[in-house]
Amino acid sequence: IKHKRGKNSNTPPSPPGLPLIGNLHQLGRHTHRSLCSLSHRYGPLMLLHFGRVPVLIVSSAEVARDVLKTHDRVFASRPRSKIFEKLLYDRHDVASAPYGEYWRQMKSVCVLHLFSNKMVRSFREVREEEISLMMEKIRRSSSLPVNLSKILMSLTNDVICRVALGRKYGGETDFQELMERLSKLLGTFSIGSYVPWLSWVDWIHGLDGQLDKTANDLDENDFVDVLLAIQREKSVGFEIDRVSVKAIVLNVFVGGTETSYTLMEWAMTELLRHPKCMNRLQEEVRKICKGKSSVSEEDIQELKYLKAVIKETMRLHPPLPLMIPHDSTQDVRLGDYHIPAGTQVLMNAWAIGREAATWGPDAENFRPERHLDLSVDYQGQSFELIPFGAGRRICPAISFAVVLNEIVLANLLHRFDWRLPAESIENQTGIAESTGTSVHCKFPLYVIASSTT
Ligand code: HEM
């Protein structure tokens, strides 16, 4: 440390790098883990070089507060990247757009129009329908091992598809079924249309109900509808063009699917590794939803332990352990250090969630109870727990993601008892991580579900 600081005591400590590649060789397959180990030697604010690019690594809640709160505006941009430019419409989406007026407008469309509480509530039926299809799929497995990872992934995918585009694009033939229903209804004779005082006959035959449902199914107000309405009415004070619409929708898929299903998969993995926590959660859910066939969204508010389990899962397994890179737009001082404009920043949410100084000596253990009397939350106010980020660039879809996770987990535990197939206990209960930006379990989670009803 002394050696590296010698040249310029104003820059944060850096591990020694190699010519041309800088510190890239030190990153390993699980970058968040390698960076966490380095931070134990070099401190919670390190300066690395990825090739020639200076990259700050933040590994403590205290420094995270400095970056995402005190100097939020300076660090609110995103670095340029060929990948973002190629895949995300030349950075016209929300997540990779540089800080500025365009990003501000697009983010406000997300916050006010796409992920508002009202919008999240309006997709309740989509969640309920997809969950009940999933439960049926699991029930049909009749105590044989099921690939729960795959089931959770297709559930999330179907929910996001319906929310974003109004219909599913999976292997299921939902859309076909809807079209068949539509043509059948178009050919149905409605006596009430001809003889008004016989309208009750249509009602008795269920025609009215079917018409309502089909009209609704055809006209779910999805994200594309909302964006097109904004485009038409120019109601947000700026022009939103075709590219912006496509880029936002792409963000919803890229940002939404993998992260959400990863969280469910980790929660189930941790619960299977900790049967006491699984039992406690099942007792809570079954007590509050006694006599009901499924858990409803109203019930969720009372499920305190469920919320603690989800927080604890996000603390130990943030789906995006290094969040999305930030970039500074001005020179700034962080503590004693000078940080020039154009420095990239990686926030190690994974390391921050495991800091012993905050979480105590058992920081590495899965113990949801710790959250029962803590006020630490993941909404961007507590820098000890930042799975969704904080500050200007915070994830705009927190409630969208959390509601889906809560209701899925609650229903899985309400309806089924879970155990691992004997032959795969070792693989399944380890906490082996996949590689990649969003980190999920290395092995798909195979489990046996026995129905409690
Ligand atoms: C458990 C689920 C999720 C997690 C853990 C998560 C996490 C994150 C994180 C860490 C960031 C970056 C924050 C920063 O740079 O400071 C982010 C940004 C973002 N997320 Fe999420 N997210 C989740 C679900 C979703 C969903 C469901 C959607 C959309 C449907 C979504 C859309 C976005 C968008 C558009 C951004 C970019 C915001 C910006 O750059 O201003 N996320 N998310």
Automatic annotation (TrEMBL):
| Organism superkingdom | Eukaryota
User: What coarse category fits the chief subcellular location reported for this protein?
Assistant: membrane
Keyword terms, alphabetized: Heme, Iron, Membrane, Metal-binding, Monooxygenase, Oxidoreductase, Signal, Transmembrane, Transmembrane helix
Bilayer topology annotation: Single-pass membrane protein
Q: Does the keyword Hydrolase apply?
A: no
One of its Pfam families is p450
Localization in the cell? Membrane
Q: Record's family?
A: Belongs to the cytochrome P450 family.
What protein name applies here? Cytochrome P450 71A26-like
Origin organism is Camelina sativa
Highest classification ranks of the organism: Eukaryota, Viridiplantae, Streptophyta, Embryophyta, Tracheophyta
Q: Which gene encodes it?
A: LOC104715411
